[in-house]
Amino acid sequence: MLVRQEGLDEKSTNTARRILSSAERATRMIRDLLDFTQARLGGGIPVERKRLDLYFHAAQVAEELESIHSERSIQLSRDGNTEGDWDPGRVEQVVGNLVANALAYSPPGTKVSVRVRGEEHWVFLEVHNWGEPIPPERLPRLFQPFSRGLGKPELQSRSIGLGLYIVDNVVRAHGGQVEATSSKEAGTTFRVRLARQPHR
């Protein structure tokens, strides 16, 4: 509420954004720890499917993250029908983790792009950034718990290394797949493929 309030001076606005960013980080860490425990001990992450538009939810998440990272720009695009039967909270969790990572691991002056594309039976989500490329030897372990693509010291205290593990588990719970490609020339892209409807 403070961040969106008009008439705040710059110091108050910056303070409110720092508080919001810290609270969002803490919430994500707690949620990831709970999901990790459930995935390891409880037989996977449960999902409750509802009809939704993936692009609409991605746009909501992007707007929330832009309000926290006001100096950054998130570019959204849409191609085709992007509706399907998925868990709304889990979908937002996937988008939030991938976009937050893209913002954290890319230079301040660069754009993060989010593309949602629909095909006949599948909907694809692509999150791209121009950060430092992930070393090839780390790519195969990227979705394992407590793993990170880059070992930046300034980011170690902000993450427990479970975000991508949770993303992978949520996507697989929906019958989908997630993969990452990374190079200096093309940047880093995470691609999520979700079946529109559960497999019979």
Question: How confident overall, as mean pLDDT?
Answer: 86
Low-confidence stretches: none
Helix vs. strand class: alpha+beta
Number of strands: 7
Please state the overall shape, judged from the principal axes of the Cα atoms.
globular
Tally of separate domains: 1
β-strand amount? 15-25%
Instruction: Tell me the radius of gyration.
Output: 17 Å
Structure description:
The structure is a single chain. This protein is of the alpha+beta class and 200 residues long. It has a single domain, classed as Heat Shock Protein 90 (2-Layer Sandwich), CATH 3.30.565. The strands form two sheets. The protein has a five-stranded mixed sheet with strand order 2-4-5-7-6. A two-stranded antiparallel ribbon has the order 1-3. Helix 1 packs across helix 5, helix 2 packs across helix 3 and helix 3 runs antiparallel to helix 5. The longest helix is centred in the N-terminal third of the chain and has 32 residues. The N and C termini lie far apart (44 Å).
